[in-house]
Amino acid sequence: MTDKRITRRGFMRDSAVAVAGVTVGLGAVAALGAEDQAAIRKTRSYNPEMEYRRLGKTELWISAVCFGGHWKRINVMKEDFDKNRRDVTTACMEAGINYIDACSHGEVLAYSKALTGRREKMYLALSDCSREVRNKEYRTTAKLMESLDSLMKEAKQEYVDLWRITCYEPGGEHSFNTSYELVAALEKAKKQGKARFIGISSHDRRWLKMMIEYFPQLEVVLTPYTAGSKVAPKDSLFDAVKKHDVGVFGIKPFASNSLFKGTSAPDDPYAAEDDRLARLAIRYILCNPAITAPIPGLISTQQVANMAKAIKERRQLDVAEKAELEEATKEMWANLPENYEWLRDWEYV
Q1: In CA terms, which of 116, 165, 272, 301 is 20 to 30 Å from 191?
Q2: C-alpha distances out from residue 28 to 20, 24, 31, 97, 266, Å
Q3: Could you report the per-residue pLDDT of 130-142, keeping only the tens digit for each?
Q4: Separation of first and last alpha carbons in the chain
């Protein structure tokens, strides 16, 4: 009875936010009840200029755009790496961005270092993709726990907010036994207090849908959702997401930077145009109420400021903006690098 009541409350709340959010962005907060507004104000790195969305049944309130752990193109910044990561993390906190997603050994160590002395200001998700189920040696509960314990010890983390195991692509290449073992590991980590919440990452939407439906223990999923993605008219992944109240982080919002013309350098001649396209993409993605937040990789404090600006702008794109983004996404699909051609399969989710 309790679970049904919570689910219905969450559904009604999220529906109200969606209706308001599609139109006015930050104004969506006004659609929430006093209890939820109070919870938002207590979230990490709260900033009244940032929008926050409920991360499914975790009941966490997460900034509507988050900090993806990848640092592609960071060489154009010509800055000390550690300083850059700490400065960008600081800028995120100041803007109200409160979630970091680190999915490799190097990323976990880099962001653990950047969070030194201020760990409680950010929600931290971690994964070590090289020592999880993509590696055939780590397809048992015992080996996955060994990987987590080793990573947390090296990163000097007493706990992680979200352990989200990075799964093989396509997910269907995992046996059901592997699926069972990884969920058992996630549950064990949560029971032991090492992970507050648990989930998985995959590029296989059909397999994700199966996992969500078969394993209701899963609380969060990460999956591609680009500036050119749309909700499938039937058999959508989001049908399962809504039914089971799962939080969703959208990865690859800019299709591995294929959306942009420039290099991401601060003095690039396309910087202003690319910033505008980035904001249009974020606004468009957030019109899908099932997405908690897109998580772009951010390499500069200026990019953080641009993402914060996107949240303040009107959510729904007007006719001219839709036409501009549609033209840009056509070029995006055409410009995909060979190792990202698989993103074409993510036009309908």
Answers
A1: 116
A2: 5, 7, 5, 17, 32
A3: 999 999 999 999 9
A4: 31
The Cα diameter of the chain in Å comes to 58
Q: Report domain extents, the chain.
A: 2-346
Instruction: State residue 64 phi and psi, 5-degree precision.
Output: -70, -10
Strand segments, DSSP code E, in the chain are: 52-54, 61-63, 67-68, 99-102, 123-126, 160-166, 195-201, 220-224, 247-251, 293-294
Region of 171 (left: φ > 0; alpha: ψ -120 to 50; beta: rest) is alpha
The pairing of beta strand 52-54 with beta strand 61-63: antiparallel
Q: How far apart are CA 259 and CA 261, in angstroms?
A: 7
Which residue, 256, 198, 207, is CA-closest to 227? Answer: 256
CA angle, residues 29, 35, 38, in degrees to nearest 5: 70
The CATH-assigned architecture of domain 2-346 is Alpha-Beta Barrel (3.20)
Closest CA relative to residue 83, chosen from 124, 128, 113? 113
Q: What are the tens digits of pLDDT across the range 176-209?
A: 899 999 999 999 999 999 999 999 999 988 899 9
* 42-54 pLDDT, tens digit each: 999 999 999 999 9
In the chain, the percentage of residues whose pLDDT exceeds 90 is: 83
